Amino acid sequence: MRGSPCRNSYLWLALAGMLLTAPAAADVKFAWIDPLSGGAASAGINAQKHMTYLIDRLNATGGLNGEKVVLLSYDNKVDPQESLIALKKALDDGARFVFQGNGSSVALAITDAVLKYNERNPGKEVLFFNYAAVDPVLTNDKCNFWHFRFDADADMKMGALTDAIAKQTQIKSVYLINQDYSFGRAVAAAAKKMLADKRPDIKIVGDELHPLQKVQDFSPYVAKIKASGADTVITGNWSNDMLLLIKAGKDAGLKVNWYTYYGGALGSPSAIGKDGLGVVKQISEYHNNALPELDPDVAAFKKRFTGKDDEFGYYRLKTTFDMIAAAASKAKSNDPVKLAKALEGIKVNTTVGEAEMRADNHQILQPMFVSTWSDNVKFDVEKTGLGFKTDVKLNAKDTALPTTCKMQRPA
Amino acid sequence: MLELITFSLLNGIVYGLLLFMLSSGLTLIWSMMGVLNFAHASMFMLGAYFSYQIARYIGFWPALVVAPLLVGVIGAAVERYGLRHAHKHGAVAEILFTFGLAYLIAEFVVMLWGRNPIANTVPAVIDFPAFTLFGTSYPFYKALMMAISVGMFAFLYLGFKRTRIGLIIQASLTHPHMVSALGHDVPRIFVLVFAIGSALAGLAGVIGGFALLTEPNMAAALGPIVFVVVVLGGLGSIPGALIASMVIGIVQTFAVALDYSMLDVFRVLNVQVARDSPLYEVYSIKIAQAAPIIPYLLLVLMLILRPKGLLGTRET
User: Which candidate, A343, B44, B191, B259, has a CA 20 to 30 Å from the CA of A223?
Assistant: First the structure.
């Protein structure tokens, strides 16, 4: 007889749990698939906080067409296989909108899976919102109607960086150093092509590829850069590969400007510190000093999440949510197909300027900033006392590139 | 050219000495106690984090002493309360124990300091140029790193060859029963060895922390290369570890400077290789691209050709 009250209480607990956690049937479910464990977890955890904040913000203004939005999180460890399992779970849980950002290999797996799923399940279509995977192929050869990218692709970012370089007449010779894998090679190829177009007088004095995240000591590479006489380095390196490179450059007294993709990525500012002052440049859609005052949502986010690493670095996610909300009210429906059609060509005003979703390849066009790491700023990042300062602002239209996308649209 | 060679040599030596700092403690523990300590690089990491934290309160120089001592105390506790019990169940239990410990330490670090690299930059008191070479100033902390590494070598080499305690330690490894019969406390000697080995790793961590990046994955990133050093140098040989570290440091550094590939060899031999030939991709890999893999190549070759390592006295 002892067992029964116990069993009863479990039952009650389970019931209470269901009432507390199970979303009401009418809720719109946003499935977010990104790393919550493993080496890339810090980026994932940071992005998840963005999602939480933005969903609360959306629900505070009535959600999507009056329906509440709920977040379902799935850990994928940046692994394409794990991501497909997570996607399956998300679909079983009733999600029709999938968010993912970390890793183009993951994004490619998801976009393929979503395309197949939608072909086989008419009437139950799913949309894929990619907010950070930048392989150009996703909006070119491998584009499809269900995928929307809210980040500038690697080529667009290189376009912006080379535009900034083209304006600096004192730049005479450029060294390329990148990680030896598809992304690093793509960065090197884009840099060579675009510099040849925009500034044929600039000499490419080095084109280095090094193993991905294996190098502990970059001083030999820096010695080579120094010997080449380069005045500027372009690198797509991220995480340790970029931080150690800049550290080694500082130790060797290397006097170059670093044009980076990820100089402002989460964790980089703390690690670079004063070593990169005045020389580390990054390309991004926002930074804390992009406007005279902090963007109100950036300020509100920092008030809610107060840790050292809690930066609102995915400003584009805010634009993502604004576009989705605008498309939902334009379509007067939360149906994925109608919403996708409404998203095509939609324009929203962000605090840094107008952003547009291209209809031909589902690539966002948004203002971009090339900025320099500086100690003379109003707003710092990661509580370092240092921050980025705008060199060049590019308008959304100027970041557009031709596309090879041939999209099949649903009738 | 002379400038590039000079700096490459200097960079190679500095990197080699950093590797020696890291691996000297490991070779000590491995040879003396027969324990393959997977948590050794974790002790290095703890040294980096401790010194960062301690230096904020009492300054860099005291932290340089206190942090390694603290890591040494942790090492002693690990041996006394963990490893000693695992030891009874054989070598596999020991390896698994240190393996698990490495994960525990990494998670502990994540909990206290977070997943991202911490802002462990060169402390202001040692952030000045040591000397100027070809118009380039050389940072003092790298010179300090070299000095500490050389000091470590002298301490270990003389300590074991020339002092009484060194002789007892050596004796208790091969003949523990005889040593304890002579009235020495063998378990305590083991604790001492493990503590010294850990403290040396901690000391390496203090300097390595800002020379590299202080982040929770640093132990995992450095672990493999440290084993390479120990195997190349020969188990238990302190001079061997020094030579192996220098060889790895210098070979790797110079390899990066070599932009040659198999294609250049073919060109010299006057052999035509078409762009669409099946192995073109392999031929076009430059030595520089493969540089960080060279130590592992050396490891594999050494194990095939001379399993006891450069100066080792017994088989690995």
Answer: B44
| Strands in A236-367 per DSSP E | 257-260, 280-284, 347-350, 353-357, 364-365
Which of A242-260 are b and which e, b meaning 16 or more Cβ less than 10 Å from the residue's Cβ? Answer: bbbbbbbbbbbbbebbbbb
Interface test with A, best of B213, B217, B284 (most A CBs within 10 A): B213
Tokens representing A127?
Answer: 């949309």
Q: Does A220 touch chain B (CB under 8 A)?
A: yes
Token pair listed for A57: 């913000």
Using an 8 Å CB-CB cutoff, list chain B residues near A244: 212-213
Whole-number Å distance between alpha carbons of B185 and B180: 6
Residues of A in contact with B139 (CB under 8 A): 251
Cα–Cα distance measured from residue B194 to residue A339, given in angstroms and rounded to the nearest whole number: 64
- List the pLDDT tens digit at each of the 411 positions of chain A: 444 444 555 556 555 555 555 544 569 999 999 998 876 788 899 999 999 999 999 999 999 999 999 999 999 988 899 999 999 999 999 999 999 998 888 999 999 999 999 999 999 999 999 999 999 999 999 999 999 999 999 999 999 999 999 998 999 999 999 998 888 988 999 999 999 999 999 999 999 998 887 888 898 999 899 989 999 999 999 888 888 898 888 888 888 999 999 988 888 888 788 888 999 999 999 999 999 999 999 999 999 999 888 899 999 999 999 999 999 999 999 999 999 999 999 999 999 999 999 999 999 999 999 999 999 999 999 888 999 999 999 999 999 999 999 999 887
Q: Does A240 touch chain B (CB under 8 A)?
A: yes
Q: Quote the CA–CA distance of B205 and B41 in Å, as a whole number.
A: 9
Cβ atoms of A374 and A155 within 8 Å: the answer is no
Q: Tokens 């067992």 belong to which residue?
A: A3
What are the residues facing A357 on neighbouring strands? A364
| Chain A nearest-CA residue for B5 | A223
Pick the closest to residue B254 from A176, A220, A108 (CA basis): A220
Q: How many CB atoms sit inside 10 A of residue B54's CB?
A: 19
Please give the full DSSP string across chain B, using - where no structure is assigned. -HHHHHHHHHHHHHHHHHHHHHHHHHHHHHHHH----TTHHHHHHHHHHHHHHHHHHH-HHHHHHHHHHHHHHHHHHHIIIIIHHHHTT-HHHHHHHHHHHHHHHHHHHHHHH-SSPP--PPPGGG-SEEEEETTEEEEHHHHHHHHHHHHHHHHHHHHHHHSHHHHHHHHHHH-HHHHHHTT--HHHHHHHHHHHHHHHHHHHHHHHHHHS--STTHHHHHHHHHHHHHHHH-TT-HHHHHHHHHHHHHHHHHHHH---BHHHHHHHTT----TTSTTHHHHT-BHHHHGGGHHHHHHHHHHHH-TT-SS-SS--
Domains and CATH numbers, chain A: 23-152+311-365 (3.40.50.2300), 155-284 (3.40.50.2300)
Look-up of token digits 């893999």: B293
Burial A96-119 (b: 16+ CB within 10 A, else e): bbbbbbbbbbbbbbbbebbbebbe
Q: Which structure tokens are listed for A301?
A: 């986010």
- The answer to whether residues B195 and B73 touch, using CB atoms and an 8 Å cutoff, is yes
In single-letter form, the type of residue at position B269 comes to L
Give the minimum alpha-carbon distance from A20 to chain B in angstroms, rounded to a whole number.
29
Residue A324 DSSP SS3: helix
Nearest to A260, CA basis, from A238, A288, A227, A282? A282
Tokens 């991501």, residue located: A83
Q: A135: distance to nearest CA of chain B, Å?
A: 22
